[in-house]
Every structure is written in C-alpha cells, then in structure tokens.
Task: structure prediction
Amino acid sequence: MNTGLFDKNGNPIHVGSRTRLVLDDGEVREFDVCFKTVHRTTVKTFEGFEPETTDVAITGIFFCWEGNDLLPCVDEKGASDVSKMEVIEEPGKGMWLAGDDGLQPCKWRRKMNRELLFRAKHIHISPKNEHLDGEWIEGYLSDKNYINSPELEGEFLIDKSSVCQYTGLNDMNGRKIFEGDIVKTSQYGVDDGNGHNYAGFDKFSIEFFNGSFWLKNNLRIFSFRSHVRYEIIGNIFDNPELLER
Result:
C-alpha cells in the first residue's frame, strides 16, 4: 500500500516500510510504517449535547516507534519530518511461490538468506506411511502434490491446500516460522478493538500475499520483520481458535 509520502531521497514510503530519522541532536530513530486506527484523545462536545465528551479515533498512516503511534509532523520552518527520513527496508518479496502451476520465482527487494523449505500435511496412501497420515511433512516441493523430505528420506503425497512456505526466520525458541503459523509478540502491544492500544502480547497469523509475509489478525496487519521477537503458539490449521477474540 502506497502512503503517498516520499523520503529524503525521493523514494516512495509504503505501509510495511521501515524508515530512519536522524534528529538534530544526533539521536537515531527507526519507524515501522503502519495503517491502523488509533485512539488519540477525548474532546468536549457542544454545550447541551450528550454525552459531554466523546472519544476520537484516527485511521490512517502512522509511524510506529517503541510502542508510540506517531503522525507526521512539521518543524518550525514548515519542513515535514517525513522529508528528513530515509527508507531503510521495504516490505519483503518472496523468492518462491507455491501455486497451482508449481513454483513461481520472483525477486526479493531486500537480501535475506533463507532455505527454500515448505511443509504440508501428508495424505496417507501407502501402508508403511499410515502413522504419518495428517502429520506435517517438511522439505522441498517436488511438485504441487509432493514434498521430498530429507529427514524422512522419501517423497510424500500432501494436501496441497496446506502447503506453507518457510519465512526464513526462527522464533525465540529456535523453531522455524512458516506461513500459517500463529505467533505472539509484544512488539505492537494489544488492540482492544476500540482503537485503544496497551502493553501486552498480541497474536497474529503469518500470511503471504502481495509478494510479502505479513502478521495479521482480525484487527491489525503488520509487515513480518526480522528484528521482532516472536514465539510460535500454534498454526491456523490445527489451532484456529487461538486467533479468536
């Protein structure tokens, strides 16, 4: 999503971008660019109206820094702080996609060293693999219906609707994070659904669309980033109830 804003180098700023701002005193701040609804203040209504006060929530582009949701500002000379920022990271683009036509290559916008791994649920057809029916198989896609697993030393028929791509990142416990996993993180606080944000852990599924991995729940969406601390707590196939509010 294009915000319509540009950094000091003339590069467009997108939702999911990461920007850097160097303040006049030399302090460096890095921001995640988000589209969200934020509760800002309580204002008085006109005299005679009820209720006497009302909450105000703003939906739009925010620059998120250390739990603060900030709107673009201007200095005493009228220069926007956005015009002093520099885009340092764009939303990542997946190296491979798994679709009905097999693997489709596309380039990354940023460099990331990662294994081209996938996982999917095994469909039992061979008697010797009966114990693996419905279990997750991890490996390399032979085609849209089979995964070759080095660990299990074989090729396994899979449910293609369950194919998940490895993101290239591991969680705090060293577990590989795949598309479809449900993770928790305190990076973005918790949204109560009314525009209020407070400290705590929120839960997101890992989704892949528009060429990028994203954190998503029914209230918010953020770019999936390498600097954030995550913990896997389940996945959308086995534990969809974890995302219920």
Summary: The two ends are 27 Å apart (CA to CA).
